[in-house]
Structure formats: C-alpha cells, structure tokens
Amino acid sequence: MEKIAVLTSGGDSQGMNSAIRAIVRTGIAHGFEMIGVRRGFKGLMENDFITLGTSDVSDILYRGGTFLQSARSDEFKTEAGQNKAINNLHEHGIEHLVVIGGDGSYRGAQALFNRGIKTYGLPGTIDNDIPLTDYTIGFDTTLNVVTNAISNLRDTMSSHERVSVIEVMGRSCGDIALQAGISSGVDAVLIPEFEWDIKEISDQLAKGFQRGKTHSIVMVAEGAGTAEDVASLIEKHSDLDTRPTVLGHIQRGGIPTAFDRIFTSRMGHKVIELIENEITGVALGMEKNEITYHSFDDIFDSENVVDKHLYQIFQDLI
Ligand code: ATP
C-alpha cells in the first residue's frame, strides 16, 4: 500500500481539520495508507508520526485550529534539518507528503520536492495572500468572525458617538479588511495595496457626524498601519473621539463556515486524485469555483493581487 503523509504548518486556520479529514478519508477510500505528522515540519524532523484511520478524523470537521497541531521551525530551513525529515519519510516508506500552510510552508514543501519527495500544497492561511487561488483556507470563516465582532462594537460606539478604528490581520494583503469592510458597511478601509490620505478620511468622517451619524468605523489591515496610530492621526486632523481595537488572534478562531468546509473537502479529494494521476510538486486552490492546481514555481513567480473592482465597489458604497 502506498503511504501518504499530511501535516499542517505555519499559522493555523479554520478549515485545516476539514482538509485533513477529507485527505485521510479519500485516501483510505482509494486504497492508500494515511499518516499524520504532528507539529508541522518540526514533527517531520522529530519523527512525530501517527497512523490515521477513518475514525481518527471523526468529530473534527466543525472545529477550528488543527488537531495535528502546527509549528514553525528554523532548523527545517537548513539542509541538515531537511535531511532529517527526508530520512524519516524514507524510514516510514512514505512517498507523498501533503503540506497545509501558507507561503513559508509552500517553500518548505518545494524544498522537499526538489530533493525527491512528492509534495502537494493546500493554502492554509487566513490572510488570503496566496497567488493563483481565489480563497485560502479559513479566510471565509475569518471574514465572518470579523463581521460579527464589528456588529458587537457598533452598539457601544454609537452610544458614545465615537469612531472605532479596527485593526485586522493582513501584513501584505488587505483582503480581510476590504471584504469584512464591505460586509460590515464600514466608513473607510486602509489596506497596504492602496494609498490613503488621513486628512481626507478624517474630513469625510467629520462630515458624516455633521449629517447625524452616531458612529463610524475605520478598518485597517496591519500592513497599512496600527489601529493606535490611525486613531491618533484621525484625532489630530479632526475633533472626533476615537477608540482603537486590535482584533488579534480572535480572528483565527470560530467554527469553520460551510464554505470553508466544502472548499477544503473538495481540495482534499482533489489532492488524492492528483496523486493517483502522478501529478506532483503542485499547490491546489480554487479559481472561478473550480479546484485548480499550479506548480510551486508558478505560485512563487506570481503576484497576489487585490481585487481592484471590489475596492471600487467599496468606494462607491460609502
Ligand atoms: P502563515 O501565512 O500563517 O504565516 P506560513 O506557512 O507562511 O503561514 P511560515 O512561518 O512562514 O508560515 O512558514 C512555516 C514553516 O515553513 C517555517 O517555520 C519553516 O519551517 C518552513 N519554511 C519557511 N520558509 C522556508 C524556506 N525558504 N525553506 C524551507 N522551509 C521553509
């Protein structure tokens, strides 16, 4: 029986469990032996392997996080670290390794692929910052978590006629801020992909209050600035009362949405199909509602771009 191992790496995201479940169950249904590697590449180097049967992935579909746990490892970036990992895979007779993680994890998967291990990537990161896929695992759940958090903030902000400046995740990609901004009807979105003028934003907010608004919300992606800095800049350019809020790790929590569960189930199923068809060294994703795949090289050569049209829609809605 051919063996397939699966691991989760980097920051956890809601839907990773659902992806593991789909890979394991489809793999077993198609006659493979399935192995879980605990704690990402660290566990791969430390031989932290477990055999996974159908019932081992029961009751995880609706849980956030990853039951295999995740880790970051600098040692794995070295040749010596990778040698340990490769030796362990050979010792267990494992030919295929599925890596669920973000950009850094893909680099690790590609390093192993270049050294003869058949690897596959699934985009496990809430930031939606992987090229050649419309979504990453957990992004949709995070949008819902952020949208709900903003609903809760609105009540208190309107009681005190304040501007709430909310910082969300996204170092290089403003998708969480932009899309949660649209779903929450916020008044301004500051993201790293577009320039913004704090004086203009402050004037707009002040006009809103003059028109009778009781509160305003400004969304900031962490790559564009901190909530603290933006709040004090708004106070400098207006007489508005502001409150910064950093949503932080709460964004990684929450029960995975139906979308994330279905998306990951489809990719988990697809990766087994690719293994059977001897297509390897690829990362999966979804484009225009189709599950697609591209070589790691193509992913690294591509740029992740924000949806400009969506930004325009936001601008027209404020
Ligand atoms: P997130 O988007 O949530 O941060 P990520 O997968 O990008 O997830 P990283 O910490 O960048 O998270 O990467 C996860 C792990 O992948 C690292 O701890 C390291 O072990 C491995 N890794 C990262 N870059 C490389 C590289 N250039 N070569 C080999 N391995 C790498």
TrEMBL record:
Cofactor(s) the protein requires to work: Mg(2+)
InterPro entries: ATP_PFK, ATP_PFK_prok-type, PFKA_ATP_prok, Phosphofructokinase_CS, Phosphofructokinase_dom, PKF_sf
Subcellular compartments: Cytoplasm
Its EC number(s): 2.7.1.11
Catalytic center residues: D127 (proton acceptor)
Binding site for Mg(2+): D103
Binding site for ATP: G11, R72, S73, G102, D103, G104, S105
A molecular function (GO) term: fructose-6-phosphate binding
SUPFAM superfamilies, per database record: Phosphofructokinase
Top-tier EC class: transferase
Gene Ontology BP annotations: canonical glycolysis; fructose 1,6-bisphosphate metabolic process; fructose 6-phosphate metabolic process
Domain of life: Bacteria
One Pfam assignment: PFK
Regulation: Allosterically activated by ADP and other diphosphonucleosides, and allosterically inhibited by phosphoenolpyruvate.
Subunit annotation: Homotetramer.
PANTHER family: ATP-DEPENDENT 6-PHOSPHOFRUCTOKINASE, PHOSPHOFRUCTOKINASE
Protein name: ATP-dependent 6-phosphofructokinase
Organism: Paraliobacillus quinghaiensis
The gene coding this protein: pfkA
